[in-house]
């Protein structure tokens, strides 16, 4: 596999980063965008090799205690989210001709993926082949995506029925949103419950009209144990 190529400081790359920053996906996620812009700036400045977990923790997340293992965990989790968010942007929002940038695995710099150039379909294809090529470029949302969003909508409706506040996180590795406890008087408490949604169109294990069972995977448990916790009720 070819080595990833760090981005350079060019007008084309700057325009692409600005386009990503204005996308629906990143415009709502300011902390993730701040991480992306920092990594872009450092990579363009030729400091890709100097981007470490401790440096990012101190300069982006303002975590000064380098001996705290939670510091490295925060950077790793945020990097995972950024990789996933960039991938989702290019799958769902980007045009086919955009310059694709990404964060390589086991690295913290931003790399550029060389675009594959193809001849215009009118030159070497029939009208039917051209239509097929256009169809292959269409953005797709799977049925699993639809079911997952239905699960999030159900959580929000249930929270509102209970008088609580639901705050979705958007794209996430494990936490899909937060429930903030609210008193009947209307006073919000700043007490937070982190929520992971598991939606399916099939019955859960041992499901009956009165309840069901759900067994968390070890991967989910490991992730939740290392995730920074907010104030609990």
Folded structure, characterized:
The protein has 233 residues and is α+β, with helices and mostly antiparallel strands. The chain has two domains: 5-113; 143-226, no CATH class. The protein contains nine helices and six strands; from the N terminus they run βαααααββαααβββα. It has a three-stranded antiparallel beta sheet with strand order 1-3-2. Strands 4-5-6 form a three-stranded antiparallel beta sheet, with helices on one face. Strand 2 and strand 3 form a beta hairpin. The radius of gyration is 22 Å and the shape is globular. Residues 117-126 have low confidence and may be disordered.
- Report on the biggest sheet: 3 strands, antiparallel
On the 0 to 100 scale, the average pLDDT is 79
The end-to-end distance, rounded to whole angstroms, is 48 Å
Which blocks of ≥5 consecutive residues have pLDDT under 50? Answer: 117-126
Number of helices: 9
Spatial order of the strands in the main sheet?
A: 1-3-2
Order of helices and strands: EHHHHHEEHHHEEEH
How many DSSP-defined strands? Answer: 6
Structural class, by secondary structure, is alpha+beta
- What Rg is obtained from the alpha carbons, in whole angstroms? 22 Å
The number of domains:
2
Beta-strand residue percentage: 5-15%
The gross shape turns out to be globular
Helix content: 40-55%
Q: Would you spell out the secondary-structure blueprint of this structure?
A:
Blueprint: E1 5-6, H1 11-21, H2 24-27, H3 30-44, H4 53-59, H5 69-92, E2 100-102, E3 111-113, H6 121-124, H7 127-136, H8 143-162, E4 165-168, E5 177-182, E6 188-195, H9 218-226
Antiparallel strand pairs: 1-3, 2-3, 4-5, 5-6
Helix pairs in contact: 3-5, 4-5
